[in-house]
Amino acid sequence: MNDETGPLAGLLVLDMTRVIAGPLSGQILGDLGAEVIKVERKGEGDDVRRVGPPWMKDAEGHDTKESTYFSSVNRNKRSIAVDFATSEGAQVLRNLAAKADILVENYRPGTLAKYGLDYETLRELNPGLVYCSVTGFGQTGPYATRSGYDYLVQGMSGLMSVTGMPDGVPTRVGVPVVDIFAGMNAVIGVQAALLNRARTGKGQAIDISLFDSQTALMLNTASAWLNAKTALGRTGNDHPSAAPYGVFEAADGYLIIATFSDREFNRLADVLGHPEWKEDPRFSTNAARVKHRAEMKAAVGEIVRHKTRAEWVAILNAATVSSGPINDKSDVEHDPQVLAREMIIELPDEHGLPVRMMGSPFRFSDTPVTYRRAPPAMGSHTDEVLRSVLDMPQSELDRLRESGAI
What we know:
Elements: E1 12-16, H1 21-31, E2 35-41, E3 55-57, E4 63-67, H2 68-71, E5 77-82, H3 87-99, E6 102-105, H4 119-125, E7 130-135, H5 150-156, H6 177-200, E8 204-209, H7 210-216, H8 219-228, E9 245-250, E10 253-258, H9 262-271, H10 286-291, H11 293-304, H12 309-318, E11 322-325, H13 329-333, H14 336-340, E12 344-348, E13 354-358, H15 382-390, H16 394-403
Parallel strand pairs: 1-2, 1-6, 2-5, 6-7, 7-8
Antiparallel strand pairs: 3-4, 9-10, 10-11, 12-13
Helix pairs in contact: 1-6, 6-7
């Protein structure tokens, strides 16, 4: 496939982000066909390049100095290394922004204004620019100048107050969900702004924060408190509002059984050989099952432990009861649905070594996502980008390199 098949083909993105949330937004835009230029500080690069272990492997299988974390959010990008603390480096980025459709950045509020790379400056050069800022706490408010990381915001947003065992300590989610949600929100905001630009010809600034993203995503737990002053709290592997809905131990491991309606529970009762549960006042309604959760869980658990996970998954799904195994990553790698949906992709890096990644979840009938570039080495496309986008001659590249700007 070529760059022209994606729904965002023809758009130019200046990705001035690092770590996870911002780079993920750039990767998604790249998957959708946009040309993404990743701007990295000369000599430093993206901070997450150095976050490890684990590390990428070289041809002999030895650890490199490149983080596997970096490779998860930086495909479909070209990297340029620019010192925008220098006047000439900042001018290079202003020239690129003048030609860009989208700029995504995740510096603390006010940082880029010092270099003439803020929205107010760049909109004068490019009125159609969609400028998305991703920060910990947003451009306004008492926390605006604070740094914000996923773990911190998981705690401050209330997510950790509903995650973990009831008698344990508050627990973080094992993947950086705050970063992921913020990155996705950035893409949603950018695409909405592009639609508005198509109607008006004007770009705009978008303010996305990790804190806003996660507090908005508290959904039912927030509504329970705001409307009923009920704190759902930590329920471990049990659903706070449905039963049986959780983890059960089979003969060879764990699986999830999830019934979210009385109809589904009735099917579960039949397939487990206890149709009388449908009339039992302790179990006949969801509210009753939640009230008698421990009894319900024990009764189901006693039956489940006598067969394997695979047996139960087959039996329950055949009976239209939602069920699935609790997989580790090796299970996921070989899962038939993962394979059928081609959710693991591979691209060669600049040394020809394979970089394996989880693929995009988007499926389009006419404009499919494309995988064109492995995550880049820092600054590996500086000359290429400045030549192709700015028509910069070699003499100017040499001069900027001599000055330390690139």
